[in-house]
Structures are given as C-alpha cells and as structure tokens.
Amino acid sequence: MEQRRLEYLTREQINQFDRDGYLCIRGFLSPEETIGLLDRAKQLLEEFNINDHPKTKFTTGDDNHVGDDYFLTSGDKIRFFLEEDAVDAHGKLTRDKSKAVNKIGHGLHELDPAFRKVTLQNERLKSLVRDLHFHKDPVALQSMVITKQTKIGGEVRQHNDSTFLYTDPPSALGFWFALENCTPENGALSFLPGSHKTTPIVKRFVRLPEGGTGFEDLISPAEVPPKPEGKYVLTECDLVIIHGSVLHKSERNQSLFTRFAYTFHMIDSPPYAVYDEKNWLQPSKELPFSRILTQEA
Ligand SMILES: O=C(O)CCC(=O)C(=O)O
C-alpha cells in the first residue's frame, strides 16, 4: 500500500502512538502561544462572577459524578467547575475564586478567540491530524482548562476517555497541552502504555432518564476483563495525544505550583462513528460540533 506523505509527525511517532496509546510531543506550541493561553485562562478566572454561580463542583467518583444543569448545558458555554475542597459545608468558598476552580469548560475552543485559534484555526494541528489518520472526518467535541490548584488540585483516577465521550464505535482522541511545568509533585499525567489494546470500553457515562448522570454497562459485569497490570509512565512533555481507550490518571497536586493544562477532544462523525443523545454533552443547533479538517481559518 502506498504510504501517506507526512506533514508534521514522523513514521516513528505514529508507530509509537499505535504501540503505547499516547504520544508526547515537544515544542508543538511556541512559548508565546503557551503563555497566551495561560494568561487568557487566568484572566477568565479573574473575571468570572462567583455571586451567580451555582457552586457546582467537579466530582468524578463512580457514584457521585457531576451532573447538574450547569454542567449538562456547558457544552456551548465557558463555565467554571469548583474543586471539592474549595467549598465548605455551608457552600462558601474557602479560598479566592481564582484559586477555587478545578476546570473551565466546555466550549472554550468555539467561543474564546485564543483557544479557538489553537484548536480550530491551526494549520499545524490539521497536519498532525492528517498524519495520525485516527479519524476519517474528525469534529471537535469539548475543551477544558484544568487548573490543578496548589494543594487542593484533585486526583483524576485511572480512566479512559471513550467511557466519558462515547461513540459507536469508540473514537475519542484527546489533545492535552501543558501550559505550565508538569512534575510528579504537581500532578503530571501518567499512562499505562499499551492499555488501549487490552482495555475495551465496558461502560459509558450517560445522562440518566431521571436526571443527572451515571454509567451504563456496555457488557455484562461478568464479562468485564480484569484491569490490565503494568507500570504507569509519567509524562512531562508539553503536548500529549491520547487514544480514547488508553488508561491514564493524574495525582493530587501536593506542591506549591499550579499545573494549568488545556485539553480538547475529537471524535469521528457519521457514518464512521455515531454520537447519540445519551451522551452528557449535546451539540446545540446554534453550535454544532465543528469539523477539524474543513474548518475555514
Ligand atoms: O489534566 C488532568 O489531570 C487529567 C486530564 C484527563 O485525564 C482527561 O481530561 O481525560
């Protein structure tokens, strides 16, 4: 078969992604682009109004996942989800609002010019996407700034992204940009290499008919294969491309340094993959998911 002419990645990088389920890339964004996104994220944190905020926290436990209206209608908005430890028993913030946010989401890539430029108007990204050839017709689904605040920046437990961003067949692909140094102490991402090949998507995160969110089994619990064994590998690079089935996690930030990151996800579109109405995030008529490769610059 004739090999595709590569524009940005090397053949070795593509093989590495296929083998490990993730790929670290250095220097994808210029220092100016990275600082621009970091400054813009901090500006958003300074400017948001906590007084009319419902105090929605970002919780990820199996029985206690965020699922209120503020979350469920955030796909085409820029909203602020608080750290669990930043809100006391009376619903009052225990720290300044700019240091109380776990993440900002989920429509930054559509609505904010700085994030839009890097995501939908980025020729380098399109070259990378064409080289990786993971999708036939990718669309951008959601975006977030994860702030991992000092001392309270919560642990993100082992998971794979296609559980949360489900398509049939699974097609989620993550792009995760470190906007600050990532270290073992401030919650750098780590991955279980190769787990995308041994970890099928066995459940999906859905809107529940009675309201809120929960998980739906895709196979019977008895058929779920045991979790793969292996050693997680820490990544300290500035862009990681993440296969939707690879297991990854990040620890609580124990340090005095924040760990801001910008991340967005792509999925394939029909007829290659179907995204249905059970998913927690729904496109609106006004703001359908944007195509990555045909988007006007
Ligand atoms: O940034 C983090 O700490 C975790 C991000 C992550 O795992 C995800 O978005 O899937």
Short description:
InterPro entries: Phytyl_CoA_dOase-like. The chain is of the alpha+beta class.
Question: How much helix is in the residues?
Answer: 10-25%
Give the biggest sheet: 8 strands, antiparallel
Shape category: globular
Unique bound compounds? 2-oxoglutaric acid
> Mind telling me the CATH superfamily name?
q2cbj1_9rhob like domain
Poorly predicted regions are none
CATH C-level: Mainly Beta
Secondary structure category: alpha+beta
> How many beta strands in the DSSP annotation?
16
Q: Tell me the CATH topology.
A: Jelly Rolls
Molecular structure report:
With 297 residues, the chain is an alpha+beta fold. The protein has a single domain, classed as q2cbj1_9rhob like domain (Jelly Rolls). The protein is 18% helix and 23% strand. It has six helices and 16 strands. Strands 1, 4, 5, 6, 8, 13, 15 and 16 form an eight-stranded antiparallel sheet that branches. A four-stranded antiparallel sheet has the order 7-14-9-12, with no helix packed on it. Strands 2-3 form a two-stranded antiparallel ribbon. The structure holds 2-oxoglutaric acid (AKG). The site of 2-oxoglutaric acid (AKG) has 11 residues, from strand 14 and strand 15. GO terms for molecular function: metal ion binding. This is Phytanoyl-CoA dioxygenase.
